[in-house]
Amino acid sequence: MKIEDTDRNTEFIKEIESLSGEKIAMCYQCGKCSAGCPIAYEMNELPDKIMRLAQLGMKEELLSSTTPWLCASCEMCSTRCPQEVEIPRVMEAIRAISVREGRQRTGKDVNIFYDTFINNIKTFGRSFEPMMVARFNLSSRKLFKDMKNGMKLFTKGKIGLLPDKPKGMDQIRKIYDRANAEEK
After folding, report:
1. CA spacing 20 to 30 A to 159: which of 1, 59, 101, 139?
2. Is 124 in contact with 134 (CB distance < 8 Å)?
3. pLDDT tens digit at each of 184 positions of the chain
4. Are 16 and 93 in contact, with CB atoms under 8 Å apart?
5. Cα atoms found within 13 Å of the Cα of residue 183, Cβ hemisphere only
6. Closest CA to 71 of 35, 49, 104, 95
7. How far apart are CA 76 and CA 95, in angstroms?
C-alpha cells in the first residue's frame, strides 16, 4: 500500500465519522448487528463487514456495495450493538458520499426505490406506502406487483387512500432544501 493510499483512506474514515457522528473504531466485530438485521439475506455484505470496510477506509468496496442502499434504518443493529454504534448513521454517510461523488447506486431497482422513497418523504413528510408502491411499480414497470397484498391491507384498514398530514411540513421542506444546497 502506498503512503498516498493510506492518507486517502484516513481521510475517507474521517469523512464517514464526520458525516455520521459515529466513531467507527468502536465496532469490535461481534456480529450482533448482522445477526439481527431483518434484511441481511438481501445484502451482498453484512453490516459488520461494512463496518470493517469503513474502519479500513476501503472506499471502493464500500461505495460499490448494495448494502448501504438496502439498509432500512430500522435500528435493530444499533439496538443490539454492545458499543452503541449507530450503524444506520454510518450507512447514511456512505450513501451521502456516494451521491455526492455521482456514483450510480448498484442495481436498477435500488435506484428506483431510493429515489421513490426520498421523494415520498419530501412530498408527504413521512412514508405514505400506497403512493410509494404505486410510484415504484410504475417506475420499475411492475405495474400490478403487490396489488393483491395492497388490497388486503386496504380492506383491513391497515393503509388508507389519503396520507396523514404531519405537523411541520415546512420544516421538512427546509431540511430537503438545506440538504440540496449542501450537495451543490
Report:
1. 139
2. no
3. 444 455 568 899 999 999 999 999 999 999 999 998 888 888 889 999 999 999 999 999 999 898 998 888 888 899 999 999 999 999 999 999 988 888 766 666 777 777 788 888 888 877 777 777 778 788 777 777 777 776 777 778 777 767 777 787 788 778 777 776 665 5
4. yes
5. 15
6. 95
7. 19
181 vs 94: CA distance, rounded Å: 19
Q: How many CB atoms lie within 10 A of CB 182?
A: 9
Indicate the pTM of the whole model.
0.63
Q: What DSSP assignment string belongs to the chain?
A: --HHHHHHHHHHHHHHHHHH---GGG-----HHHHH-TTGGG-SS-HHHHHHHHHTT-HHHHHT-SHHHH-----HHHHH-TT---HHHHHHHHHHHHHHTTPPPSSHHHHHHHHHHHHHHHHHSS--HHHHHHHHHHHTT-TTTTHHHHHHHHHTTSS-SS----TTHHHHHHHHHHHHHHH-
Q: Which cell numbers in the block locate residue 66?
A: 448494495
Residue 13 grid coordinates: 474514515
What CA–CA distance (Å, rounded) separates 12 from 137? 36
